[in-house]
Amino acid sequence: MVNVAVLGYGTVGSGVVEVIETNKEAINKRAGAELNIKYILDLRDFPGDPYEAKVVHDYEMILNDPEVDVICETMGGIKPAYDFSRRALLAGKSVCTSNKELVASHGPELIRTAREHHCNYLFEASVGGGIPIIRPLNYSLTAEKIDTITGILNGTTNYILTKMDKEGAAFEDVLKEAQEKGYAERNPEADVEGYDACRKIAILSSLMCGKNVKYEEIYTEGITKISPEDFRYAKQMNKSIKLLAMSRDTEKGFFAMVAPFLISREHPLYSVSDVFNAVYVHGNMLGDTMYYGRGAGKLPTASAVVSDVVDCARHLGKTVMCFWENEDVKVAGIEEDQGKFFVRVESGRREAAMEAFGALAEINVGIAEEFAFMTQVLTERDFNEKIEKIGGCINRIRILSAQA
Ligand code: HSE
User: Fold this and answer.
1) Which of 6, 23, 240, 315 has its CA 20 to 30 A from that of 92?
2) Taking a C-beta distance cutoff of 8 angstroms, is the pair 308, 16 a contact?
3) Which residues are known to be catalytic?
4) How many whole angstroms from 158 Cα to the centroid of ligand 1?
5) What distance in angstroms lies between residue 8's CA and the mean position of ligand 1's atoms?
6) Among candidates 108, 65, 73, 125, which has minimal Cα distance to 94?
7) Whose CA is closest to 68, among 19, 115, 119, 20?
8) For 329-359, how does the pLDDT look when each residue is reduced to its tens digit (9 = 90+)?
């Protein structure tokens, strides 16, 4: 028997219990042992819940119980999740988590602690919810040199942008509706400003490099400035707008960014709509692979946590491989990154724009007050200098290159 404790009986924590209960026969077979939920830690009581008797309020009970093998940390946030996870690993108990914030900020340290104490710190659910992406990077793509990861890693923003695209609605209106339906948080900042996607691409980038990519060094831009007019232009260009999180290992350095991008119909990420997530990975031998599915939600996320529990049960007393060393990757400033831009300026700036950018492709959707165009490939630094000189910029959106 493998005894499991669940920390936090909220959406994901209760999902973990439900997944283990619903699929217990198959899961136990695959784990090679019976998984037993021994404790559920929460501040609250749950009268009438079938697992009511397992609920405890004191973490020390779990930590000091030598029978507990695996801990599912589904609390989120840094405090007290970091302390609880670290102490569990020091005691030789494996930890499986959905906590992207904690993994992005303390991943290498917790992985090392697990290795030193012959247990595991696993985090499949921290990126892309139920989509298997951590395990493919750790196990399946080990023969590859991965040079590019491009992901739609946030369901809330993908839902909002999909609605704006399909219905021509304004950002604020769709956000409000998403909040009413419970798809978006009451405080949506982490999602709409791109911070959530930034943590997730930091984790994927670290696994891509085997070294630590600090999320603080990733250029991050959200979707709050995207308007229905931007989507009118996007349609005219046969494109859509998606919040992309990407990292690229190039000869010029390691670039990482979260920002809205114009993406053409031909790109596989174009069709990833609503709350769905996808991760597009390019390896130097294999070429492209894509991982698609539900990036959030109770059961998809819990399913990924439980898959980690199964991995821990199969490897009790052993550490499964995870290449994420403590050494920091030098993330290049985006000024030297190159690409094309879609730009909207006040119509009076047409001549200045043509002079500054030279060959440009005009895009016309009949908005008389504006001049809109697509630039050639240029660096972010060049682009910023030119656009500042011209003035009157209404918006600018990067264009995803066909190679990304
Ligand atoms: N807020 C996140 C999202 C939840 O919308 O994708 C999953 O991490």
Assistant:
1) 23
2) no
3) 200
4) 10
5) 17
6) 73
7) 119
8) 999 999 999 999 999 999 999 999 999 999 8
pLDDT at 70 over 90: yes
Residue-wise pLDDT for 214-263, tens only, equals 999 999 999 999 999 999 999 999 999 999 999 999 998 999 999 999 99
Within 6 A (CB) of ligand 1 lie 129, 154-156, 191, 196, 295-296
Nearest ligand 1 atom, CA 185: 1
Residue 200 CA, closest ligand 1 atom number: 8
Is the CATH number 3.20.110.10 carried by domain 137-294? no
Q: What is the CATH number of domain 2-130+298-314?
A: 3.40.50.720
Report which protein residue has its CA nearest ligand 1's atom 7. 296
Pocket test for ligand 1, best of 100, 156, 162, 277 (most atoms within 8 A of CB): 156
Task: Name the band, by pLDDT with cuts 50, 70 and 90, for residue 404.
Answer: low
Contacts 24+ apart (CB under 8 A), 213-218: 213/247, 213/254, 213/256, 213/328, 213/329, 213/331, 214/328, 214/329, 214/331, 215/104, 215/105, 217/256, 217/331, 218/256, 218/257, 218/258, 218/331
Report the Cα 104 to chain-centroid distance in Å.
Answer: 10
Domain boundaries, given as residue ranges, for the chain: 2-130+298-314, 137-294, 338-399
Q: State the average pLDDT for the chain.
A: 97
pLDDT band at residue 183 under the 50/70/90 scheme:
confident
Please tell me the predicted confidence (pLDDT) of residue 267. 97
Architecture, CATH, for domain 338-399: 2-Layer Sandwich (3.30)
- What six digits make up the tokens of 212? 């630590």
Distance CA 129, CA 144 (A): 24
